[in-house]
Amino acid sequence: MNVNATLIINMIFFAAFVWFCMKFVWPHIMSAIKERQDKIAEGLAASERSQKDLELAQEKAAELLREAKQQSAEIVDSAKKRHAEIVDSAKDDARSEAEKIKNGAMAEIEQEVNRAREQLRSKVATLAVAGAEKVIERNIDEAANNDLFEKLVKEL
Amino acid sequence: MASSENVDSVGYIKHHLQNLQVCKTDDGWMWNNELADQGITNACENAGFWTFNVDSLFFAFILGALFCFSFWRVAKNAKIDNPGRWQSMVEMIVEFVDKSVKDTFHGRNPLIAPLALTIFVWVILMNMMDWVPVDLLPWVAEQTNVHVLGNEPHTSYLKFLPTADVNITFSLSIGVFLMILFYSIKVKGIGGFLGELTLHPFSSKNKFVQVLLIPVNLLMETIGLVAKPISLGLRLFGNLYAAELLFILIAILFSTGVGGFIGGFISYMGWAIFHILVIPLQAFIFMMLTIVYLSQAHEDH
Question: What start-end ranges are recorded for coiled-coil regions in this protein (chain A) (predicted)?
């Protein structure tokens, strides 16, 4: 149990082990731990970043969707309006066309009527003259029948 | 009968506490069991300082080398992505030591943390030798001594628990003490270190009184300084020596009949279980105090 030279030898062992540990053990293990910590921190940061990116993208997509919906509604509205306009203008066109056709037809009818009347009138006159000739042939009392003819002519 | 049994027990204990030694005597270098056939049980008893406890040194070196080799293998093959079980355990120990150092030692010195790790693991490994049954390795030594070397059975000595050898614990604590002195002088300079030893704790503005106080301060501070390695070494030695002694005493119980065997078995197991606490605790205390002492050595007032 006495203190002896064992102490010196073991102190040399001690120094050697500490030197070995400082040179070949400690730095390698610490650098491995440090590297892993860095890697984990990096991974966590990246996941946080991508989470944020995802949120942003989702927001953007929602906005785009909203915009698209609005645009489509606008397009539908304007299409409806345009449709109504086209229908209205077509109706107007049709109406004015019909009016024009009707007016033309009316004018033609009137013309035809006038012409017919003219023709009739002239025919009646000849007929009346022929009748009158026949009457005269039988009864030469021209004067007595003349005012009768006159009346007839006027009636037409 | 009783007295002879006592003598047997004392002999058993003495035998177990005797180191295998090599020493320098007047007749040259010799083993301490060399002269057993002349009736001298310990040839190195009066050899003085130049005696080597071969068994302590052997186990201390084997365990220290085991620490270095196993940790070096992990360090060399350290994986970042997928650490194995062994690497995880080593990293856990390293991080524990690193945290202890960072909590206590605020300077910058790349030596402190590896030093603390070496002390912690080496002392744990050496302390763990006290779980080896007290008669196992001495029995192996005896068989070797008798059958291989052809010596008398009672001349085979082996004390296999290195930290129960005061030389081993003191070599560690004196190593730490030398580092305390080295860093005290390196950080504070010789003047600063001497000032620390002589101008505290008592100081006075009066020059004359101050000069009178210097011897008192020097005495107190020197005692405080020298107490550090002595308490460090003796604490570890005392704990493990007591552990070994008690294991030996319990082992004596085994040969005292059935009751003694059962009682011995239970108390041996209890004492071993208790050392699950003592072994790492003593290593931790040694490491922690080393860090604290070296941290104090680095503090410049």
Answer: 47-74, 99-126
Q: CA-CA-CA-CA torsion for B27, B31, B35, B41, nearest 10 degrees?
A: 120
With H, G, I as helix, E, B as strand and everything else as coil, classify residue B146.
Answer: helix
Q: Which residue in the list B70, B235, B267, B295 is annotated as catalytic?
A: B235
Residue type at B28?
G
Backbone dihedral angles phi then psi of residue A49, each to the nearest 5 degrees: -60, -45
Q: Are strands B51-53 and B21-25 parallel, antiparallel or unpaired?
A: antiparallel
B166 with A3: Cβ contact below 8 A: yes
**B135-148 residue pLDDT tens:** 899 888 888 888 88
Using alpha carbons, list the distances in angstroms from residue A84 to A70, A81, A93, A98, B52. 21, 5, 14, 21, 117
User: What's this model's pTM, rounded to 2 decimal places?
Assistant: 0.77
**CA distances from residue A53 to A50, A64, B241 in whole angstroms, order as listed:** 5, 16, 65
pLDDT tens digits, B204-226: 788 888 888 888 999 999 999 99
Q: Do B218 and B198 contact (CB within 8 A), yes or no? A: yes
Interchain proximity A33–B95, CB inside 8 Å: yes
